[in-house]
Amino acid sequence: MKTHVQIVILVLLSLIVTACAGRNPYAIDDPVKLKRMSFVMAPGANGNWPARVELVRVDDKRLVADLIATDTSAWFGETGEAFRRAHPGAAYDAWELVPGQAKGAVDVKRKGKFAGVLFCDAQSGSTPFRVRRDGHLTVVIDDTGCRLEGVAGKNRRSRRSKTVDVSFAMGAATNGNRPLRVELVHVDDKSLVSDLTRMSGTAWFRAGGQAFRRERPDVSVDDWELVPGRHHGPFRLAVNRKVNGVLFCGPSQPLELRWRRRMEVEVYGDGCRMSGTSRRSDSPRSGSERR
After folding, report:
1. C-beta separation of 125 from 144 below 8 A
2. Within this chain, do residues 241 and 138 fall inside the same structural domain, yes or no?
3. Is 179 part of any domain?
4. What pLDDT is attached to residue 175?
5. How far apart are CA 143 and CA 288, in angstroms?
C-alpha cells in the first residue's frame, strides 16, 4: 500500500514538473507598453552638463530585480557594460540630453513582453525607475533630479480620438538662424486653455512650463526642436476631439489650435501661425495679458 502511494506521489510530482517546464516562471506578467518618449532638461540643470538616460528592457523578472538594485553611476560605467555583454537579448535605448533643450517624441515601440527600467544620470542622483506606463512617457531633468511624467493609457485611442498630421515650416533666417523649441500642450479644461493663452512663450519656456507640468502631470505635451531652413514633419499625433491644443512657439503668446486632419504651421519672426493665415488672425486673443 505504501509503495502504491509513493508511486502516485511521484507521478503527481512528475506532472507538476512537466507543466512548469512548459512555461517560464520568471516571464514578465506586466509588460511595459511604451510607444513614445519625450525628454525635457531645464536650463542649468545637472550643473549645466549633459545628462545620460538609458531605457533597458528585459524579459526576466530576476533581471528586473538586478537592475533596480543597480547604482545609477555604476550602470553608466563597468556595471552597465558587463550587463550588456551578459544579456545581449535585452533591449537598450540611450540618449544624451543637453540643458535647456527638449527632445522627442521618440518612437520606442518594441515587440515582446518586456519590463522596463530607466537609468537617469544626473548629479543630484536618482535610483533606477521601473517603467510601468503605456503610451507616451516624458523624462524631466531639473535641479531636483530626474522624474517621469505621464499617465498609463492616456494615449490609447477612444471613440472620440482621431489622428492629425502636424508639419512645421521654418525659414533659413528665422530666430536669428538658430534652432527653435516648440511645445504642443493637450488641454481638456477650457479654463486652463484660457490661462495658457495668456502666458507668453518666454514665460512658458523659462519657469511657467515646468510649474504647469508639476501641477498637472496628467497633461500630455509634444515637443520638437526646429532647425531653420527646413520643413519638419509631418508628425502623426493621436488626439481627443474634446482636448484643445495650445502651441508654444518662440517668445510671443501661444497659438490655440483647432484640430484638422493635416495642419501646416509656419514659424515667423517671433511666433507661429497656421499656414495661409495672417499674423493678426493667429493671435489667440487681442489685448491678452502676458505673464
Report:
1. no
2. no
3. yes
4. 85
5. 32
